[in-house]
Amino acid sequence: MEQISICVRFVHWKDEDNTVEVREEFLGFVEAESTKGVALAEFMTTQAEFVIETHKMCAQGYDGAANMARVHRGVQAIIKQHVPEAVYVHCKVHSLNLAIGHASKEPLVRNMLSTLQTIAFAFGYSAKRLLAFQESLRQDVLVREEMERRAKLRTLCKTRWASRADSLYTFRTAYPVVVQSLETLSNDGDGKARGYLCSIKQFDFIIALCATEHVLSNTVSLSKMLQGKNVDLIEAAKEAS
C-alpha cells in the first residue's frame, strides 16, 4: 500500500493573550493508487475529511523527486492548478542532505566512510571484538570521558547524512582504542583485524576522517534549525551562509 503523509504548518492566533503561534500538525495518511504525480495529487480530493480550506494554502513543500517537483506533471504543479498561490518549496533539509551526499562521493571520503562502516559492523556483530574494544576503552580514561558514555562504535545512517557526524565523532574520539583493540585481535590471529588496522593507519584515512567529521559536525545545527517549525527563509539563508 502506497501512503502519503499529510502535514500542515499554520499560524494560530490565540485570542486569550493576542499572540501568534506557529504550529505543525500531522493529520494522517492517505492511500495512493500509485506513485505518479497525478495519483499522489489526488489527496486534494480527500482533504475534506481534514477540514482544510485549500484556497488559503500559501505554500507546499516536498523533496525533489520528479513525481513531486516536476514542472508539468508533478504533485506541486497539479496542486498549483487548483491553488495558484501555493508556491512549491523544495524541502531545504532534503537539499542539505543531497548536498552532503554528493560531496561525500569524493573518493577519499567515500573510501573512509566505507572502511569506518565495515569496522563498526565488525565490532558490533562480534562478541569477541566488542569485548576487546570495551577492555581497551576501560584502560583509557581520557578517551572514555570524551566518548560521553558511549560503549561502542556507531554505524552510519544510510539516509540522514548530517547524523553521520555523531558516528564520525565517536570513531575519531575512540581512534586510539580502536587501534589498540585491533592490534590485540591481530596478535590473537584475527586476519580481518590486521587488514582493518592497516586501513585506518593510512594517512588518507586519518585526514579524511578528521576533515569530514569537522565539516559534518557544523551541518548538524543547520539541519536541526531547518527542521524547526519557527524557522523562516531569511534565518535559514543566513545560517546556511
Count of DSSP-assigned helices: 12
Structural class by sheet pairing and helices = alpha+beta
Mean pLDDT: 88
Helix content: 40-55%
Distance between the termini: 41 Å
Biggest sheet architecture: 2 strands, antiparallel
- Order of strands, main sheet, comes to 1-2
- Poorly predicted ranges (pLDDT <50, ≥5 residues)? none
Strand fraction band? 5-15%
Order of helices and strands: EEHEHHEHHHHHHHHH
- The tally of beta strands, per DSSP, is 4
Principal-axes shape call: elongated
Query: Radius of gyration in whole Å, from Cα?
Result: 24 Å
What features would you describe in this structure?
- The chain is of the alpha+beta class and about 240 residues long.
- Helices cover about 55% and strands about 15% of the residues.
- The protein contains twelve helices and four strands; from the N terminus they run ββαβααβααααααααα.
- It has helices at about 35-40, 65-70, 75-80, 90-105, 105-125, 125-140, 140-145, 165-175, 175-185, 190-200, 205-225, 235-240; strands spanning about 1-15, 20-30, 60, 85-90.
- The strands form two sheets. It has a two-stranded antiparallel ribbon. A two-stranded parallel sheet has the order 3-4.
- It is elongated, with a radius of gyration of 24 Å.
- The model has no long low-confidence stretch (mean pLDDT about 90).
